[in-house]
Design brief:
CATH architecture of one domain in chain A: Orthogonal Bundle
Largest sheet of chain A: none
Oligomer: heterodimer
CATH superfamily of one domain in chain A: RNA polymerase sigma factor, region 2, helix turn helix motif
Shape of chain A: globular
CATH class of one domain in chain A: Mainly Alpha
CATH topology of chain B: Jelly Rolls
Number of domains of chain B: 1
Number of helices of chain A: 9
Structural class of chain A: mainly alpha
Structural class of chain B: alpha+beta
CATH architecture of chain B: Sandwich
Helix content of chain B: 25-40%
Largest sheet of chain B: 6 strands, antiparallel
């Protein structure tokens, strides 16, 4: 049973990777990414309006998925507005080789959501914003579009195939904004189990590139 | 700058970072590691795709056309205020060679970032980061300097920013990311060939192994701010 499922995923991934190679004309060609590039390069208002109409409802649903302490539904509209303003302002820095428009806009939304919460729960000036953590070093290393597209396709093809218990945790973490510790409390599972489910999900999706963590001592706490 | 590193944050921690659910202090440490680590940067591009995919698969909240138009108008109105438009994302050149987040913390501290002597071999400079869970600080170990042997009362993250140091287990170089927990006893020593600067986030004071440890008062408290 288990093996069969794995095989299906493998076949799909293989098929998708081939598609990626065939599609590889050196450029990313999905409509949203092209529009985002045009907003960045030409301050294209029409493209921006289309992006807005596509992404605003998704962003609103992302905002409403939040189960952060201190988050309330009224913040959703603010988040959509703040994210879309940032999209306009930062579009010139969008690099289609690294991420699709959807992924890039997700990162903007994630950063905004965290910063809104941190500002709410903190009266003092915060020296860092979440996007500061994501600042690229000056001498940036090029990523190949091919590699990125492959990994996107792996995520797309395999996310839906994950066992429910792994999918559930990824949703809690990415959509609800729960830490692993919070997820472990809510699900009544040891923290180590939550973390190993996360790691298993990553292995299944085959998106790991960095070497494994060296220190076994530090694993399951 | 980018070299092959031996010590990385664990995958589950990278997932929390990618989802934005990691606390501020460990996030600062991850961002410092990323400055040196191409492998983890690349991995995070993929981890971000998980979030993007989950976001785009969610059922969009139905918004009627009129509401959508008026929300768009509101955004356009803000955009049209000229002072709000940023054309470039480039920030001031980073001369220190330190990760961006650290340079920004140093700049933010202005004259208030002060080095204090902990022992003859170790200086500390604490950062204000707006959170109370961890002390975030730079530690400077002089060439060949020894730090006291210690255990940990809470988790400790360390990233080597300059030079290298070693303990009983290994040598840690620029960019290496370490996590130490209660029960991990070690005695870091600065490399002979130059001073070592590390970023650290400490959740609780360390526990000195020396029976006279209580005499070394500055080690026995932390200062989250």
């Amino acid at each position: 049973m288990f093996l069969k499922k794995e095989e299906i995923v493998d076949k799909q991934t293989e098929k998708n990777s081939r598609v990626a190679v065939l599609n590889l004309a050196g450029k990313r060609s999905d409509q949203w990414s092209l529009m985002l590039v045009s907003v960045g390069e030409n301050r294209d208002r029409q493209a921006f309006a289309q992006l807005f109409k596509h992404f605003a409802p998704l962003l609103k649903s992302f905002a409403q998925a939040s189960r952060h302490e201190g988050w309330f539904p009224g913040l959703s509209e603010d988040l959509v507005q703040e994210v879309m303003i940032k999209v306009w302002q930062k579009a010139a820095g969008y690099n289609p080789e690294k991420a699709s428009a959807t992924t890039w806009i997700y990162t903007v939304a994630r950063n905004c959501r965290i910063d809104m919460l941190r500002r709410k729960s903190n009266t003092q000036h915060l020296p860092l914003e979440n996007e500061d953590f994501w600042h690229e070093p000056d001498e940036e290393t090029p990523v190949t579009l091919l590699r990125q597209k492959r990994s996107e396709e792996k995520v797309q093809a395999s996310l839906a195939q994950l066992p429910k218990e792994q999918d559930e945790i990824l949703r809690k973490v990415y959509l609800e904004g729960k830490s692993h510790a919070e997820a472990s409390n809510e699900l009544g599972l040891p923290l180590g189990t939550v973390k190993s489910r996360v790691r298993l999900a990553l292995q299944k999706m085959q998106i790991l590139v960095a070497p494994e963590f060296q220190d076994e001592l530090l694993n399951d706490h | 700058m980018t070299t092959k590193l031996n010590y990385h944050p664990d995958k589950a921690m990278l997932v929390e970072f990618s989802a934005g659910t990691l606390e501020t202090a460990p996030s600062i440490c991850i961002s410092a590691h990323l400055h040196f680590c191409e492998a983890c940067r690349t991995e995070l591009l993929s981890l971000n795709e998980i979030g993007a995919q989950l976001m785009s698969e969610a059922t969009p909240v139905p918004v009627d056309d009129a509401a959508l138009e008026s929300a768009l108008d509101a955004v356009m109105a803000v955009i049209d205020q000229p002072q709000r438009v940023e054309t470039a994302v480039k920030d001031q050149p980073n001369k220190s060679g330190f990760p961006f987040s650290i340079s920004k913390l140093i700049a933010n501290a202005e004259s208030t970032l002060t080095w204090k002597r902990l022992t003859s071999s170790v200086d500390i400079a604490q950062f204000k980061t707006g959170q109370k869970a961890f002390e975030v600080a730079l530690h400077k170990i002089c060439a060949g300097g020894k730090t006291p042997k210690h255990d940990h009362n809470g988790v400790e993250y360390t990233v080597v920013l300059k030079g290298s140091f070693s303990d009983e287990r290994a040598v840690y170089k620029e960019g290496d990311f370490l996590m130490r927990q209660p029960g991990d006893v070690h005695q870091p020593m600065g490399a002979q060939n130059g001073e070592c600067i590390c970023l650290s986030a400490l959740a609780a004071p360390i526990k000195l192994s020396n029976p006279l440890g209580f005499l070394m008062r500055p080690w026995l408290r932390i200062n989250p701010m």
